[in-house]
Amino acid sequence: MSDIWPVCSEFSKLWAVDDSSSAIIIGGKQKSPNSAFKIQNVPVEEHTYKVTTSYGTVGTTPPQPLVTNDESKTLVVQFVKADDATKATTVGESHMAQRKY
User: Fold this and answer.
1) 39: containing domain
2) What three-state secondary structure class fits 72?
3) Residue 25, pLDDT score
4) Which residues contact 39 (CB under 8 A, 6 or more apart)?
5) Is 18 left (phi over 0), alpha (psi -120 to 50) or beta?
6) InterPro entries of this UniProt entry (predicted)?
7) Tell me, what DSSP letter sits at residue 73?
8) pLDDT of residue 46
């Protein structure tokens, strides 16, 4: 069992492009051409990226991620520095005391 993915150890953690439908599926294999994805900068906004493959750009048609040439469906990702995310999401001790888990 994986420490990183303890719940679903029987499934592949890699994505793949389904050659027959262009859908992005779980079940990729390391070093397989249909499992190779890249993160590329989108020059429109700072810290904004898109996911691409040799098949094309990864987009979405809810609820399915897929390879598409339709720019309006491009899956866009923004990264935030860990310091910025920590400061933005830190909850004070008084708020933490009120939460019961």
Assistant:
1) 15-98
2) helix
3) 92
4) 49, 50, 51, 52, 77
5) beta
6) Kunitz_inhibitor_STI-like_sf (IPR011065)
7) G
8) 81
Is 3 domain-assigned?
Answer: no
Question: How would residue 17 be classed by pLDDT, with cut points 50, 70 and 90?
Answer: very high
Domain count, the chain: 1
DSSP 8-state class, residue 37: E
- The per-residue DSSP string of the chain comes to --SSS-S-TTS---EEE-TTT-BEEE---TT-GGG-EEEEE-TTSTTEEEEEETTEEEEEETTEEEEES-GGGB-EEE---HHHHHHHH---HHHHHH---
Q: For 85-99, what is each residue's pLDDT tens digit?
A: 555 554 444 433 333
In a domain, 65, yes or no: yes
Rounded to an integer, what distance in angstroms lies between the CA atom of residue 14 and that of residue 27? 6
> Does residue 91 fall inside a structural domain?
yes
